[in-house]
Amino acid sequence: MSQYSAGAAFRKAVQEESPLQVVGAINANHALLAKRAGFKAIYLSGGGVAAGSLGLPDLGISSLDDVLTDVRRITDVCDLPLLVDVDTGFGSSAFNVARTVKSMIKFGAAAIHIEDQVGAKRCGHRPNKEIVTKQEMVDRIKAAVDARTDENFVIMARTDALAVEGLESALDRAIACVEAGADMIFPEAITDLPMYSQFAKAVKVPVLANITEFGSTPLYTVDELRGADVGLVLYPLSAFRAMNKAAENVYGAIRRDGTQKNVVDTMQTRMELYERINYHSFEQKLDALFAASKK
């Protein structure tokens, strides 16, 4: 029997759904909710790990182990292929990139994207980004490809060059990354729909559109992106933003009103939670063990 490959599952999903919707899951519970909603692939955002798990900004502060902790928690309970943001590879050398790739495969991830910003990186939709040379980015991709212990594991190259050096530079970098072995391309902070078609035509591999809220990229629809030859559509933090807003509203109401009665109708019920995490099957096994011990 052949061994399961999360990377192969991710590639299959890209082939079967065009474009593939990849939704961000900030934790294991959200991964289960995404699967329940019908998504075929999920995503762990580096900015989400920083803000959600650490309470810190997305400025290259989080570590490989921080991300791996959330990867393991998600892959332990959800079998959807997981795309992971690994920033610049968590280190300054090819050895760091290689360690990151091997660890991601070991912890059950299906794919990563690695970017061409400097180590002190920023959110891709913030100003004043700095990028490394094209050669350094190519070296990152080569190190990632060479480190794969599963040939189906997906190496996606993200370039932030559009906002820094312009479209031609971004296209040039994307082409160079594909030549170095990148399986897919993630052009960050695209501002015009036809640009995606230009990337797809130039690189001839699947192109990802990052449709994040409150950023540089308009909230294009799946149909619009399909028409621009986009292969994957990413919604990195949509549920996370909604979750945060809901939490703020509930905290405010309890503090203001002295009760949660006025916001109960906005909450997931206890029974809904139990159903989403398959609580009753665990409890039934526990009951069976207790019953057996009493005999």
From TrEMBL:
The keyword Lyase applies. Pfam families: PEP_mutase. It catalyses: (2S,3R)-3-hydroxybutane-1,2,3-tricarboxylate = pyruvate + succinate. It is an enzyme of class 4 (lyase). InterPro entries: ICL/PEPM, Isocitrate_lyase_ph_CS, PrpB, Pyrv/PenolPyrv_kinase-like_dom, Pyrv_kinase-like_dom_sf. GO terms for molecular function: magnesium ion binding; methylisocitrate lyase activity. GO terms for biological process: propionate catabolic process, 2-methylcitrate cycle. Its EC number is 4.1.3.30. Pathway: Organic acid metabolism; propanoate degradation. Keywords: Lyase, Magnesium, Metal-binding. It comes from the Bacteria. Gene3D superfamilies: Phosphoenolpyruvate-binding domains. Catalyzes the thermodynamically favored C-C bond cleavage of (2R,3S)-2-methylisocitrate to yield pyruvate and succinate. Involved in the catabolism of short chain fatty acids (SCFA) via the 2-methylcitrate cycle (propionate degradation route). Catalyzes the thermodynamically favored C-C bond cleavage of (2R,3S)-2-methylisocitrate to yield pyruvate and succinate via an alpha-carboxy-carbanion intermediate. PANTHER family: CARBOXYVINYL-CARBOXYPHOSPHONATE PHOSPHORYLMUTASE, CHLOROPLASTIC, PHOSPHOENOLPYRUVATE CARBOXYLASE. NCBIfam families: PRK11320.1 (NF008455), prpB (TIGR02317). Homotetramer; dimer of dimers. This is 2-methylisocitrate lyase. It comes from Rugamonas apoptosis.
